[in-house]
Automatic annotation (TrEMBL):
The chain crosses the membrane at residues 38-56, 99-120, 127-151, 157-178, 185-208, 228-247, 282-304, 343-364. GO terms for biological process: siderophore-iron import into cell. Belongs to the binding-protein-dependent transport system permease family. FecCD subfamily. Its main location: membrane. The keyword Lipid metabolism does not apply. GO terms for molecular function: transmembrane transporter activity. It is found in: Cell membrane. The complex is composed of two ATP-binding proteins (BtuD), two transmembrane proteins (BtuC) and a solute-binding protein (BtuF). It comes from the Archaea. Keywords: Cell membrane, Membrane, Transmembrane, Transmembrane helix, Transport. GO terms for cellular component: plasma membrane. It is a multi-pass membrane protein. This is Cobalamin import system permease protein BtuC.
Length: 373
């Protein structure tokens, strides 16, 4: 009996050893790919750092990249670096806040677009699929035409845009909660609300005078000029709260790609995750939109680019979408400011002009497999 037992035991031992070696090989391959992805993201961050300095040099002032870095560092290390007063005014008070605002806005659009595409399982989903921008635009139209706003002063348009964007989001989420938070319900509700607020904005435009119509049109084109250091407090606070929540849902989003029922068997309530992520994304998008106006395609294009370059693991895909969104938005804004200077093209127009070719490329590729697989 011992002689028959030994070969079986040896075979089992060899099987376990081969399985262990295969597992180690898979883990090494995963770490290698993860390292390449992290290195790629680090390269994009370094590219953004260089792009910030280069973009600041664009214009009639004639600055160099070392002068830009010296001006920025002199703000915190005045004993080591010198700061020219003219450069300080242009760099620190005019151009740098606009670029930092663009980085935050692009990052927010990117991660929200990625999350919405995942929970809605729709490659055309973006922060504007749920009509959030049209709700904000209607808030601006109400303030411009009738002067109806929750607060006055310089925050009149911003506060009204945020209020109506959030009312739009709450309506959609409440409707989905009553009907069931399926991806189809959210998409259909978003389309309905988008058309509703777009029609109401057009009605406001019909009653507006020339100055009011101009204000509504400019806000609807999208721009980064509203950013200044005095307005960053609430903006950054919302980011600090919302971004970690979305990143923490990456594992749940990975499981939801295999189907709601399969995710539930693994302990993930897909409807609850869908409601939480959509609500948090709506808050973040509403905060961005009330400062920037309607800027499209960043939330649509950035996640697709990240998915093509990084893969479908949302633990890496969500921050990658944000980083690429930030890079796309500040580069589009730089082109808009300098392509036919001194005229500044609204940022929203430029993002659409640059985003449409890539969008058509995605459509014409004609891949058969689903985008989240």
């Amino acid at each position: 009996m011992n002689s028959s037992y030994e070969p079986v035991s040896e075979a089992a031992k060899n099987h376990r050893q081969k399985r262990s070696e295969k597992l180690i090989k898979v883990q090494k391959e995963y770490r290698r790919l993860l390292g390449r992805k992290i290195a790629f993201l680090t390269g994009i961050v370094l590219l953004i750092t260089f792009a910030v300095a280069y973009i600041i040099t664009l214009g009639p002032l004639g600055m160099t990249i070392p002068q830009v870095y010296e001006t920025l560092l002199a703000r915190y290390l005045p004993g080591i670096f010198n700061m020219d007063e003219v450069f300080e005014q242009v760099v620190w008070n005019i151009r740098f806040p606009r670029i930092i605002g663009g980085i935050f806005a692009g990052f927010g659009f990117g991660i929200c677009g990625c999350v919405m595409q995942a929970v809605l399982k729709n490659p055309l989903a973006s922060p504007f699929t749920l009509g959030i921008s049209s709700g904000a635009h209607f808030g601006v139209a109400i303030a411009a035409v009738f002067g109806v706003a929750i607060i006055g002063g310089e925050y009149l348009l911003i506060a009204n845009a945020f209020l109506f964007a959030m009312l739009c989001s709450l309506f959609i989420v409440s409707l989905a909660a009553l009907k069931g938070a399926t991806s189809e319900t959210l998409i259909l509700a978003g389309i309905a609300v988008n058309y509703l607020f777009s029609s109401l904005s057009q009605l406001m435009a019909y009653f507006a005078n020339d100055e009011q119509l101009r204000l509504m049109s400019l806000w609807g084109m999208g721009d980064l000029s509203a950013f200044s250091w005095s307005k960053f407090g609430l903006f950054v606070a919302i980011f600090v709260i919302c971004t970690p929540i979305l990143l923490s849902k990456a594992r749940d989003l990975n499981l939801m790609t295999i189907g709601d029922d399969s995710a539930l068997s693994l302990g993930v309530n897909a409807n609850r995750v869908r409601m939480v992520t959509m609500m948090v994304s709506s808050v973040l998008v509403a905060t961005i939109v009330c400062f920037t106006g309607t800027i499209g395609f960043i939330g649509l294009v950035a996640p697709h680019m990240a998915r093509m370059l990084i893969g479908t693991d949302h633990r890496i895909l969500i921050p990658a979408s944000g980083i690429l969104g930030a890079c796309l938005l500040i580069c589009a804004d730089a082109v808009a400011m300098n392509i036919i200077g001194p005229t500044i093209i609204p940022t929203g127009i430029m993002t659409a002009l640059l985003g449409v070719p890539f969008f058509l490329y995605l459509v014409l590729k004609g891949k058969r497999k689903e985008f989240w697989q």
